[in-house]
Automatic annotation (TrEMBL), chain A:
Keywords tagged on the record: Electron transport, Transport
Protein's UniProt keywords contain Transport: yes
Protein family (similarity comment): Belongs to the ETF beta-subunit/FixA family.
Source domain of life: Bacteria
MF (Gene Ontology): electron transfer activity
Organism phylogeny: Bacteria, Pseudomonadati, Pseudomonadota, Gammaproteobacteria, Oceanospirillales
Descriptive protein name: Electron transfer flavoprotein subunit beta
Record bears the keyword Electron transport: yes
Matching InterPro entries: ETF_a/b_N, ETF_b, Rossmann-like_a/b/a_fold
Pfam family, one: ETF
Amino acid sequence: MRPEQQQKQQKPGIDVAVLVSIGRHPTTGRARRAEQDARGLELALAMEAELPGSRIDVLHAGSQDVDSEAALRSYLGMATGVGMGLESMTLLEQPEGSDAILPLVEHLAATSPQLVITGARAERGEGSGLLPYALAEHLGWPLVNSLASIETVENGVITLLQALPRGQRRRLKVRLPAIISVDEAAPAARQSAFGPARRATFLVAPTTSEADSELAQWHLSPARKRPKRLKIIKAASARDRFKAAASKAEGKGGQVLTDVTPEQGAEAIYKLLKEEGVLR
Amino acid sequence: MDGKCSAQGWVYSALAEVCRRSSPAAKDEVSTMLETLLPILIFTALALAVIGAVRRIRLWRQGRPSRVNLLQGLMALPRRYLVDLHHVVGRDKMISNTHVATAGGFVAAAVLMILVHGLGIANPLLGGLLLLASTSMFVGSLFVARRRLNPPARLSKGPWMRLPKSLMAFSIGVFLITLPTVGLLPDGLVEGSGSWLLALVLAGVVVWGLGEMFFGMTWGGPMKHAFAGALHLAFHRRAERFGGGRSTGLKALNLEDEAAPLGVEKPTDFTWNQLLGFDACVQCGRCEAVCPAFAAGQPLNPKKLIQDMVVGFAGGSDAGYAGSPYPGKPVGEHQGAPHAPILAPVVMKEGKALVDAETLWSCTTCRACVEECPMMIEHVDAIVDMRRHLTLERGKTPNKGAEVLDNLIATDNPGGFDPGSRLNWAADLNLPLMADLKQVDVLLWLGDGAFDMRNQRTLRALVKVLRAAEVDFAVLGAEERDSGDVARRLGDEATFQSLAKRNIATLAKYRFQQIVTCDPHSFHVLGNEYGDFLQEGQGGSDFNASYEVRHHSTFIAELYDAGRLTFAPWKGGSVTYHDPCYLGRYNGEYEAPRRVLKALGIQVAEMERSGLRSRCCGGGGGAPITDIPGERRIPDMRMNDVKESGAELVAVGCPQCTAMLEGVVDASAEVRDIAELVADALVERPAGDVSGVSRRTTAVTTAEEVTL
Ligand code: SF4
Ligand code: SF4
């Protein structure tokens, strides 16, 4: 017990901001805690248990009504018996259809947390998945996507496990402050309890909101399920069939760059994007 | 404490008095001594008992308030004890007779003893009665002793093993000291040099008896059950259960009041009369003997749970418990205090809180323990109260629990299916919708079985039956939601109330005479639990008052009696019937399903545990969702019961039971819902048959035809 405690005291907690949005149930469309954002909060809560003294600030930018309030409260319902004082969430209130990025950037710059956790993609609205990148660009902080777990935080450096396709993992050391985004690779969120959710309070922080002029011009309609392309498998043996079923389509072409300078890497990516017509 | 010391001082001075007076004695010196000593002893014991009683009552009053009519309860006490309690005890004739002799003898002897020996009213008539009472008590105690010779495993040992001896000490002691009163003292007995010794021994025996019976009654001995039990009966939280009534719906949590605790975290969160109820337990283990979870080796024993609650509000460890443990959990590792959490908030490294969560999640809420308990203790209420805390405050519903609750919140059904697909199974049946008709005779409540392929067969059969009987019915279709049964039993009162209120609002839009459902869980919740949430003008406190809710077996039996159904004679093999807990014990419907089976020409080969004592299938209370491992599976044990009855087919009346029993591998019997059996036996009604004519006589002939 003793040495462990001392060790823990040596590692002071850090300030974490968890960005949460209002989710949408895929079948019924009801407001709920967004799956990925909830995983983000789960990650923060688990880290808090490891690193006592950490402070979690749950942050939401958007409008607030009856439905969305219940959804937001259910994030705080996850703070059961953890005792990290997660009784309230910070609300950057803005009218429907406003751009969330600027108020978030302003708030984060002002409160300067060491770590920002966010879901990779929202369940309603644009859902483009660009928010973490936009934040990283504005704040100039490093971004790690598809996080699987947080291993240690020591002397301002965080050791992370990033999820790669097909179950692979990559260990990364990142200097704080940083932004990490989580998707389905992160541990599932814990149950949300009614009691703490009901007691939760909202701290409304002042914001400047700007209508998202681009979004306003968009025409939104429900997505249609696209038919799946059939995979025709010509396999001779059961082993081949299994391999065909289990493997993802191999990318054609491409190249693996190792031991190159960042400039060379950027050059290669730039070239590829030009070839593919993404950049003109 | 002061009272106790001075009382002890009193006893010592009394004993000194005995010694001073006991010279090598003559007859009257001994009797004078007894005359002096007895009142002292009796009133000392009584005084101690009163002190103990006050202390005990203080313990109970740590609980939260509960509204009961104290005076009415006390007045009803004799009837509740003599009729209702003995109705339950009387299922075991030997014990009930033993108890009548012992307890009756004791109460009479105690009162008479206070008059004769305490107040010195040496009336020979009273003395004679006292001799009679103590004899009765002595005979009773012989039977108690006999049962304790080779006690069944369900009985607690420990202090309970000395009880028959204490009973004998009291009855013999009282008998002997009363002999002089009626002038029956054999002369030789107290003469000579041994007489003072004898008197001392006699006094000792009386002290022992008084100690157990008076002192022990309020200070926590086995006789505590008499004191706590009597008050528990008087202040029972479900007074409706007395006089043959039924009260099975869970009590609603007041979610409007944000200060009220959400369920029970610590012993003092129970209401005071719940605490009192726990204290009434006689550790007879009848609940343990019928508990399916205990039998399956899951870590639950209802008797131990009640004892743990007593440990909780009195403070201490469970080491003093002398009965069967929770399977797989050694006794002596858990402890509690009135204001300490019953369930450890985090996994503790050393020592444990009072109860482990898996104990609570093992329960199927089958109510077998409650029905069997001679003290009418409410185990299920307590278990659900603690589950409420786990779910609502801690978000700790185990295994699939959280997922099911999330689904219920997001899709109104536990499986997370698209609510719009609730009628997909009936795409070809062209079911009439309530939304179109607005008014029908019968609202067919589908339940969540509508999403389950096995239960869809039952539903289709039921529709066929209703159509054959030309019943005017309709369904809610996509407007129907889960009744909230599972959410409530998993402790999520908030989701339950939300579902209940929305269902009630939907029902209020339409007009119908009755709701018929093939799901006993919906039946119970709609009929017994929605009443608390009805608005003004929706039928008062009893949901049944505005809408009659019926199980399909009841409804089919009525249709048959009205001559609206005709069956071909049964040609299959032998059949047994499994009583679903939520139809039988929760709603008292044992007869209708049997009547339907009889009408089909089936003679039911009853299982040993059927009717009131039916053994649960393991599917209730969210148990399949929380899925606490044991040594065996409950449905396997139930299918074994079926096998022992020799039946080739087991008729059921519940989608849960069907699913659980059909899930048994290598089962010896087929599982069919009553609706399916009825649908298969349907024959065209003969032309010219006047519908509406009673068919009770035909039922008899059909049965006879088959027996031929
Ligand atoms: S709870 Fe009831 S049935 Fe169980 S041991 Fe106690 S008195 Fe007997
Ligand atoms: S309700 Fe059934 S499962 Fe639960 S404790 Fe009682 S007998 Fe056991």
